[in-house]
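Practice record 12: protein with beta-D-glucopyranose.
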Amino acid sequence: MSESYEFPRDFLWGSATSAYQIEGSPLADGAGSNIWQRFSHTPGMIVEGATGDVACDHYRLYKDDVKLMRDLGLKAYRFSVAWARVLPAGKGRVNARGLDFYERLVDCLLENGIEPLLTLYHWDLPAALDDLGGWLNPDIAHWFSDYADTLYRKLDGRVKKWVTLNEPWVVTDGGYLHGVHAPGHRNLFEAPVASHHLLRAHGMAVQAYRADGKHDIGIVVNLEPKYPASDSAQDIAAVQRADAYMNRQYLDPVFLGHYPAEMTEIFGDAWPEWPDEDFALIRQPIDFLGFNYYTRSVTRHDERAWPVKASSVRQDATYSETGWEVFAQGLVDALVWLRDRYGNPPVYITENGSAFYDPPRAEAETLDDPLRVDYLGKHLRALHDAIAQGCDVRGYMVWSLLDNLEWSLGFSRRFGIVHVDFATQKRTPKASARLYSRIVASNGRALAQ
Ligand code: BGC
């Protein structure tokens, strides 16, 4: 008898995107500039000079995209708000036309029976705030919570699931340590400061939500379980450092009120001491955790890998076009780890997906993407397994609804379950979208076929 993959009742099936990756028209209707707009317009920063000027033109085509989701039968949609549309200078004056866009989007989702999950920060910091130091300026916790409050007051009730930050690890590792993401800094001393202010900003925005909001709020992290490449003491210590840096650096403060001990070893003199009251602020109770899962790392000690001294060892396995190993068991292992280490918080898988080659044009009504189909099936079966092991997982958002601007990789990597022809803006569901649609309609049972 084949296994049944039925998911819990009310499991929330959806898809995810983010503002700068899909919207286009970044400066329309009085919006201020943001750091990705600046970064992408700086020669050499993004593959083939791609920018978010048009992207998927979702700012203008959002109604079509909502209809697409409805046709696929999706029940939820995770999107992000571009801070500089709502507050062009990042603080102070509210731009009503920017706020209106998100109000119209939310209303359109609700009219189509799709629950909105709103992310307040998915990396597009207002440029005017970067001019003031961005995430390095301690005042940003106030700027962020004021911005968040503007949205709570406008949309809470219609939006019942709020996310403060998307992947603070990527914000700091990409933006402040290695410089491959906006704002493009490369500074060991800045990265821990930016991390800390991101966490303070999160805490303050949760506090503001308790005053003005009535529903659920959480944070989204990307977790990549680390497995030792050998049983040598050196490799095992490297796993501890890599795990602390990527996985525990944000969750330990949020759930346990302190940073992992390994952080001083990794950052040396660049690791600051912070006052106790900061940890009280950061450790606000949250209603759920958003977990983005893509891959694992088999880790070894590596002196040349700055600053963590740990790197990944390539496996004899399938790798996606972003160079990530396809390893569904990592999703189970990470969820079991969350269950045991942090007291089994309610979790939404807020992103999971893969970039594999698809042609720029879709010639037919649908497009075959067998590797993405395989990835999706494997990860959803793994997710079912984790739920069977008692992990409190409440929903799953596939990354991504649409092919979109993959940050520094421009349009060269496609993660969508729906293909986008960037020359014509034509949307074509891929086989993965059709499979996902059947999975959603059957609440998982289609996974048995
Ligand atoms: C981010 C997305 C990104 C995806 C694939 C996540 O880190 O939140 O914005 O497109 O991974 O790289």
